[in-house]
Design goal:
Layout lengths: L1 E6 L6 E5 L12 E7 L2 E11 L12 E7 L2 H13 L4 H8 L2 H4 L7 E6 L3 H14 L1 H12 L3 E3 H8 L3 H9 L3 E6 L21 H16 L3 E7 L5 H14 L3 E5 L7 H8 L6 E4 L5 H12 L5 E4 L11 E7 L17 H12 L2 E6 L4 H8 L4 E5 L9 E6 H8 L7 H13 L2 E5 L6 E6 L15 E4 L4 E4 L5 E2 L14 E6 L1 H11 L5 E4 L9 H10 L5 E4 L12 E6 L13 H13 L10 E6 L5 H7 L3 H15 L6 E9 L2 H18 L5 E2 L3 E8 L2 E10 L2 H13 L8 E6 L6
Parallel strand pairs: 9-14, 9-15, 10-12, 10-13, 11-12, 13-14, 16-26, 17-24, 17-25, 23-24, 25-26
Antiparallel strand pairs: 1-2, 1-4, 3-4, 3-5, 6-7, 6-8, 18-22, 19-20, 20-21, 27-30, 27-31, 28-30, 29-30
Helix pairs in contact: 1-2, 1-12, 4-5, 5-6, 5-7, 8-9, 18-19, 21-22
The structure holds adenosine-5'-diphosphate and zinc ion.
The site of zinc ion (ZN) has 8 residues, from loops.
Length: 736
């Protein structure tokens, strides 16, 4: 007997090996083995077992590595990913399998937390702790809701706190703990107020009918729900999941990491008796491995998680949901394979004959295009279920600058409206996509802008921390008093506004206003984002100021005003997806307003009020936006009308990187078919990060296969010195 083996170092080429007598019966499809190759032992995965081999000389398999056995569909998926994303199989497997599974980490002992005192006593404690120790109060809130007790990890997830807060409650004698076997179901002993399905509106029902139809028929099919925020997409997901479960089919649902909060999960838990596994980022390696095994054994029928949850070893997969499918966080960009989880989800659905369900208020151009071509079944939800769409105003900042005789960050009307909301106890959100206090430091004498020593990035001044820092490498220095270029003294000018400055200006205008800021600076600690969101939701602040972190998927019923401070910033990004991003951003941000009983208002401040994308976003007119954007993409030959592959070259010596990249690109250009374009090599958008120089080469063409073949042929020529690395990004989010 022979085995076809793909080495982990290889992308797709299979080699034949003899299965020695003692290993017969142990070598199956999906098993990891060690095999000899040119005098070395290499790891590989068996993809086929057969009786004959066409190879001239066949060596025996050295050993079976029993620790990894991929399920059949994940193996297929891995092989597809290796090929599609031009990444060695071993790297793909590394991405697919959680570290705990690869290293066979044992789950730590689990703690089961219980109340040590009566509910009445706890209730009193909560009141006193609410101000002094809000995190502990959050722990007790959860403990008041459980019947007997709750697993420690579950408690952390539900209360959105760190272990120290639970320990605090135990130390106070309010809670006790027990050590439990690790294989008990995490849902035992918890109370959930099971809620009933909602009666769907007609357009929701029609959408659900189509999805249910696919589920019943079986076979691969993709649906796209295009529905404004609050139109009831999640309700459809829930009812589709119910249907899948009834049919004996299991479910994976992907949500953006930022939406993976207790608020979202609760909605699902309240509807399913079935055990549901949440793959949140707080899981340790051991816990992740345990979850992986629970899923593989079919003990959990629903998995919810961010990007990598698509690799859950779920048997009998029948439905894969991708919520907010346009989100760029589904694309893995740091390190290969640069996979797009939405596309992988669709591929997995194809391999498992499952139904794929995408949902968004602002579908990706590619997805909507596919729906237009009837590759996906489109369901449009035009109405909001519970609230009305907000009213959007565009404010021309050029006039505001004239009025203020200079730069101003707030228009008069925005200030008036913030004040009005505050007086009636309603909340506002202000959105600015730059953090820090001042976003540029330059010398008034020589005009030079202060840059990071190690990166091609301007330094940003952070007032609270008292530093000038680089947002690429995080290195911070004390702001210089003397210009490092011309040695002028006290000549440094501070310009440009970030979220920190917005917060301080607002407090100066309205003394006593309560503001809360959420950006990468205020959310460095685990759990701090969740805590701040909860504070805002509970009414602790009048105004929430933040970066894109707050733009997405969050639900704040008391928010009736949203301000977008500098809608123009995106126009300066030289990328074919910049307008799409701006449209998505404004629509998503606007969707935060008026989700409760009171209607919402949105103010968009811009110096280019006549710009079509601003107008389309303000009118929440996705169709108009799509129509003009797809035309542009067609004219200039961008996806979905062509395939793009980005090749990134990196290295420590700038000249070497540049030269090697040019050499590679020249060779590649010769290997491509005539209509394919290999653009000249240019420095990347961030041309230097942490002293590593970066050059990019963009390849465009009608389909991917010729590009893949050319890159493989080019790699075989060994054109790059050892000091220069090459990364391939298929379907890149950005081309800079
Ligand atoms: P989306 O996911 O599109 O943002 P949701 O499913 O979260 O929308 O729905 C928004 C709100 O409307 C939720 O509070 C939800 O419970 C409610 N809702 C959804 N569908 C219905 C319905 N058919 N009847 C009543 N309320 C609904
Ligand atoms: Zn830096």
């Amino acid at each position: 007997m022979y085995a076809s083996v793909i080495l982990e170092l290889s992308i797709e080429k299979a080699l034949d090996y003899l299965i020695p007598e003692p290993l017969l019966g142990m070598v199956h499809k999906g098993v990891a083995v060690e095999v000899p190759l040119r005098g070395h032992i290499q790891r590989g995965i068996v993809i086929d077992v057969k009786e004959v081999s066409a190879a001239a000389k066949v060596l025996p398999i050295h050993r079976v590595v029993t620790d990894i056995v991929l399920t059949a569909d994940l193996l297929e998926l891995a092989l597809w990913m290796a090929k599609y994303y031009m990444t060695p199989l071993g790297r793909v497997l590394k991405t697919m399998l959680p570290a705990g599974v690869r290293k066979n980490t044992q789950a730590k002992q689990q703690y089961y937390i219980m109340r040590k005192v009566s509910r009445e006593v706890l209730r009193k404690e909560v009141v006193t702790l609410r101000d002094s120790a809000p995190q502990q109060a959050a722990v007790l809130d959860v403990m008041l809701r459980v019947r007997k007790g709750i697993l420690h990890t579950e408690l952390l997830e539900k209360a959105e706190v760190l272990p120290s807060s639970v320990k605090g409650c135990i130390d106070k004698g309010l809670l006790s703990f027990d050590i439990v076997r690790s294989d008990r179901s995490p849902l035992q002993g918890q109370e959930y107020f099971m809620s009933k399905p909602k009666i769907l509106r007609d357009e929701q029902q029609q959408s659900l009918d189509r999805i249910n139809n696919s589920l019943e028929r079986g076979g691969f099919h993709t649906h796209l729900i295009f529905g404004v925020t609050g139109s009831g997409k999640t309700e459809i997901y829930i009812q589709a999941i119910t249907k899948a479960l009834q049919l004996g089919k299991n479910v994976i649902m992907l949500v953006p990491e930022i939406s993976l909060t207790e608020q979202t999960i609760e909605r699902f838990r309240c509807r399913f008796h079935e055990s549901l596994t949440v793959l949140h980022h707080r899981l340790s390696d051991g816990e992740r491995k345990e979850a992986w095994e629970v899923i593989r054994e079919g003990k959990s029928r629903i998995v919810i998680g961010a990007r990598s949850a698509i690799f859950s070893p779920m048997p009998a997969l029948g439905l894969i949901i991708v919520d907010e499918e346009h989100e760029h966080s589904y694309k893995h960009t740091d390190g290969s394979p640069c996979y797009q989880a939405r596309d992988v989800a669709i591929m997995r659905a194809k391999l498992t004959h499952a139904t794929a369900l995408l949902g968004s208020a602002t579908p990706a151009i590619e997805s909507y295009h596919n729906a237009r071509l009837d590759k996906y079944t489109l369901s449009a939800l035009k109405e909001r279920s519970a609230a009305k769409l907000p009213c959007v105003h565009i404010v021309d900042m050029k006039r505001e600058f004239e009025k203020a005789k200079g730069y101003t960050i707030f228009s008069d009307s925005l200030l008036t409206k913030i004040d009005a909301r505050r007086k009636v106890g309603e909340q506002s959100i202000l959105f600015l996509n730059r953090r820090g206090f001042h976003t540029e430091l330059s010398c008034a004498s020589c005009g030079q802008v202060l840059m990071c020593e190690h990166c091609s990035a301007k330094l940003t001044f952070h007032k609270a921390a008292g530093v000038a820092s680089c947002h690429l490498c995080s290195k911070a220095i004390s702001p210089p008093t003397m210009c490092p270029f011309c040695r002028a003294v006290a000549s440094i000018k501070y310009q440009g506004m970030g979220t920190e400055k917005v917060q301080s200006v607002l407090s100066a205008i309205f003394p006593g206003i309560e503001t809360l800021r959420i950006d990468a600076d205020t959310t460095k600690h685990k759990g701090s984002l969740e805590m701040q969101l909860r504070e805002f939701r509970s009414g602790k602040a009048d105004v929430l100021i933040g970066t894109q972190m707050i733009a997405k998927g969050l639900h704040f019923p008391e928010v009736t005003l949203v301000g977008v401070l500098n809608a123009d910033a995106h126009f300066y990004i030289p990328d074919f997806r910049a307008t799409e991003q701006l449209f998505q951003l404004i629509t998503q941000v606007a969707g935060r307003a008026g989700r409760g009983a009171s209607p919402g208002e949105v103010i968009i401040q811009t110096a280019t009020p006549e710009h079509p994308v601003i107008r389309q976003a303000a009118a929440q007119d996705y169709e108009a936006f799509f129509t003009s954007e797809i035309e542009t993409r067609k004219t200039f030959g961008f996806p979905p009308f062509c395939r793009i592959v980005k090749i990134l070259f990196t290295g420590k010596v700038e000249r070497f990187v540049g030269e090697a990249a040019h050499r590679y690109a020249q060779a590649l250009a010769r290997l491509l078919p005539p209509q394919y374009i290999c653009h000249p090599v240019v420095p990347a958008g961030h041309s230097k990060i942490k002293d590593t120089f970066r050059y990019v080469c963009i390849v465009r063409g009608a389909s991917q296969q010729p590009i893949r073949t050319a890159i493989a042929a080019c790699d075989a020529k060994d054109l790059l010195p050892a000091s220069v690395q090459r990364f391939v990004d298929v379907d890149p989010v950005s081309i800079t």
